[in-house]
Amino acid sequence: MAFVLILSLYLSVCQCAEENDLWLLLSSYEDISITVSDLAFFLATHGFNAKPEKSYVVVKFASGKEVYLTPNGAAPRLADLWMTPPSASGGPTKVISSDAVKVNVTYKMTTDEPFIKKVSRYTIFPVTPLGMCYDGSQKLFETYKSFGLNTTYLFDPSGFDSQGHLWVAVEDEDHANAWLAVDSYYGVMTKDDYYYHAPYSFADFRYLDSVNPKWKLS
Q1: What is the pTM of this model?
Q2: Which of 171, 128, 166, 126 has the alpha carbon at shortest distance from 148?
């Protein structure tokens, strides 16, 4: 009898902890344009069992309890939380393909000196001031793509004191699956392995908000 009571209390505490963690996560971010699919993807990357269901997201806790979330546009927090499925129809949803965002990928560094020199000469560093890696990386991406180079973003949400660090990697056109990482402030990176592994990698800047919506300004 005592064991059943302890187990019941334990499950209750775990459920409350999960609900609190979810509410804290929702309250810490804002994204006026986030869609149902984006929200579900974001929650899943933060460890929640989340699935999009037409106009809302279903989050299932370890206890089996389900709650429902709807993106709330410009209102505070990422979404509104419901105890029962909301009946109102939401806006259009955007489908993110399963391979759009790569998780924990390591890229092989190119050793082709002519390619490294060529990439380093396409722009003048720093592209943007220190701390403006989002804008700088977009400029780098557009520059290298304009020269026909296969380019992707790499993102570390814990970088720069948890403000997030974004940079790009350019594939060596003469050596498949060999890449050169480029930081918008420091330039080409050939001696730092940090730049060749990241929690997230994607080829479209729009996916950044799926893994790291903008911090709420208080």
Answers
A1: 0.59
A2: 171
